[in-house]
Amino acid sequence: MAARFNFEVYTPYRLFFSGYVEAIVLTLVDGEAGIYASHAPVTAPVVPCLLKIKDTNDSWKTASISGGLLEVRKSKTILLSDTAEWSGEIDSGQA
Q: How many CB atoms lie within 10 A of CB 11?
């Protein structure tokens, strides 16, 4: 089992995701980034992108986010975003 870290995604309306994960992949203003356990602390702006989350069962979940701010801490990684939706939640008519 790979090392895990605590990851949370917040929008202004809800706690979108909270749990232990093995990795996340998202796009920062200077390119795609992969975050794993023991990543160096960083705060970085995120552009609208697909957020990929590798859970502890070795499967990937994908969500659409509108950009935001990522903070990697020693104890927790937090993503703040205006919107976040799982692929099954997206209303194609509204999009």
A: 18
